[in-house]
Each structure stands twice: as C-alpha cells, then as structure tokens.
C-alpha cells in the first residue's frame, strides 16, 4: 500500500504545479478557453508521463517544467483525439469529453492552447545551470510530440481509417502515437540526470518496452474492463474494427507478452544501474493498471 500512497502524493504534487501554472493565465485569456483548458488539464489522470520524467531526473533541479509540459501535451492530444473528427468519444477521465462541454471550436482551441502553453512553460523554465541538458531534453519532447512521433502516428492511424489489419503496422503506429511520448518522458529525464551513453542505451529499451506495454494493457482493459457491455471479447476495437493485440494474439498470449515485456523492462532498468524502488513499482503499475 505504501506505493499507492506514494503514487498519490506524487500525483498531487504534479497537479498542484499544473494548477499553479494555469493560474498564470487566469484573467489574461478568453474565459471559455481558460475553463476548457483547465477542465481537461485538471480532470484527473494518472500523470504517468510527468512522474516518469521526475523519477528519471532524480534530484536534478529544474526538471519540473519538462514534467508539466509533458502532461499539457498529453492532455491536448486526448482532447483532439476525442473530437468527432477523430475518435468521437464522449467520456474521458470519467467525465464528459472537452467538446461535449465546451463545443468543438473551443475544444480544438483549448488543445492548441495547451500545446503552445507547454512550450511557453518549457521556455520560461530554462535553468541557469545545465541549460544544455535542458535544451536537449526539450528537443526530445518536441520531436516525440510532433510529426516524427505522436502526430505522425495519429496521422497514419487516421489514414488507415481505423482499419489496420496487420500487427507490424499496428506496432509502428502505436510506437509513435502512444509510445513516443512515454519514451520521451524517460529519456528527457535521463538526459537531465546526465546518464551515460551505456545507461541511455538500456533506458531506451526500457522506455520502448513500457510504451508498448502501455498500449497493450489499454487493449486488455478494453476487454477485461467492460466486455459484457461492449462485446469486445474478440479483442477488436468495436468502433472501427481495427486489430488489437488481444485480437491478433488471443487473450492468453497477450497476457504472456505483457508479462515478458514487464520482466524485460525491469531487467533494462536494473542494467541501467538505476536503483529506485518507486520506479520499479511504477513499472509494475504501468504493466498492470488493474489496481
Ligand atoms: C490527436 C495528435 C493527436 C494524438 C492523439 C494520445 C493519442 C494520440 C491517442 C490516444 C489513443 C489511446 C486512447 C491510446 C491508449 C493509450 C493511452 C494514450 C491512453 C491514455 O493515456 P493515460 O492512460 O491517460 O495516461 P490518463 O487519463 O491517465 O492521463
């Protein structure tokens, strides 16, 4: 239970800082835009990306803006992903999606606003010492969020019109759409902590593994979470009939793959020389979010 308490404490720390950062916009931007940005940014969420970054950065000062920016970018992507033109979802983080509350126009602008505010936050936070590391970390985040990462993955996803049928294409899309930002969270934190080339090599493997697991577990939760209601027992996304890991490999093998990836992730973490009990537990949490 100590881990869950620690998780809550760290989540609260991130949320207080996100709220503080948002306060800086209060009264300076159109009210519906502010409320819409705040609605989604402070709507809960596991805060896994900023948490990974802060754990990797360790005691390195000046890392907080990177963590906050990651959550803003992640939130913008969720707002846009939920739009009728994309996934057309009506619930997110247990609440009505942004466009359901504020309308599509404001939801699009709130997403744009959060993306830009992420970069304002990053630029405002450039530290006096170790600015070189910070800028390198910023570069990693920018690339992962952009056309070579999340945006590119999403573009391929919509181009396939939700009709991906082979596992390699699915993996390539997921690697960019979901995995890139998770990998960037780990690698940007590692750069801040000045890890060696050898350590970075293992951390790259670690972060790629957990990025992949993240998506697979999400697919599994779709089945185990509400199979009776959604009829997703086949493992295929009922909305657009695209293939998923459980749909391709079957439930049993998918669970085995997650288990293997979990153990490989721990092995990479160990080989990277990082000894952080919370990070080990967080890896377990990511690999089995059924807590
Ligand atoms: C619109 C450019 C653009 C990109 C969208 C994030 C994304 C890319 C798509 C989401 C598709 C999806 C639901 C993938 C499953 C894995 C995932 C990213 C889940 C949501 O992230 P969590 O679990 O959410 O970290 P919380 O709410 O905890 O922050």
Automatic annotation (TrEMBL):
Recorded family membership: Belongs to the FPP/GGPP synthase family.
Annotated PANTHER family: FARNESYL DIPHOSPHATE SYNTHASE
Organism: Alkalibacter rhizosphaerae
Record keywords, A-Z: Isoprene biosynthesis, Magnesium, Metal-binding, Transferase
Reactions it catalyzes: isopentenyl diphosphate + (2E)-geranyl diphosphate = (2E,6E)-farnesyl diphosphate + diphosphate
GO MF term list: (2E,6E)-farnesyl diphosphate synthase activity; metal ion binding
Keyword Ligase set for record: no
Name of the molecule in the record: Farnesyl diphosphate synthase
GO cellular component, one term: cytoplasm
């Amino acid at each position: 239970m100590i881990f869950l308490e620690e998780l809550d404490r760290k989540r609260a720390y991130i949320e207080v800082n996100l709220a503080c950062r948002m306060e800086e916009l209060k009264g300076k931007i159109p009210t519906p835009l502010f409320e819409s940005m705040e609605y989604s940014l402070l709507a809960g969420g596991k805060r896994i990306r900023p948490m990974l970054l802060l754990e990797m950065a360790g005691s390195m000062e000046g890392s907080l803006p990177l963590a906050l920016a990651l959550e803003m970018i992640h939130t913008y992507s969720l707002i846009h992903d939920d739009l009728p033109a994309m996934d057309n979802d009506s619930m997110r983080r247990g609440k009505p999606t942004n466009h359901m509350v504020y309308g599509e126009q404001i939801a699009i602008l709130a997403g744009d606003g959060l993306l830009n505010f992420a970069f304002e936050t990053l630029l405002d936070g450039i530290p006096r010492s170790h600015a070189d590391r910070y800028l390198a970390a910023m570069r990693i985040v920018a690339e992962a969020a952009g056309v070579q990462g999340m945006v590119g993955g999403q573009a391929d996803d919509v181009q396939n019109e939700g009709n991906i049928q082979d596992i390699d294409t699915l993996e390539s899309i997921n690697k960019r759409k979901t995995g890139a930002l998770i990998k960037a969270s780990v690698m940007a934190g590692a750069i801040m902590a000045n890890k060696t080339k050898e350590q970075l090599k293992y951390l790259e493997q670690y972060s790629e593994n957990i990025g992949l697991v993240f998506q697979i577990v999400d697919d599994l939760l779709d089945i185990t979470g509400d199979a009776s209601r959604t009829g997703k027992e086949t493992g295929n996304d009922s909305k657009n009939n695209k293939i998923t890991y459980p749909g391709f490999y079957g439930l049993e093998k998918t669970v085995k793959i997650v288990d293997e990836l979990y153990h490989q992730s721990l092995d990479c973490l160990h080989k990277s020389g990082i000894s952080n009990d919370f990070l080990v537990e967080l890896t377990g949490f990511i690999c089995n979010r059924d807590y």
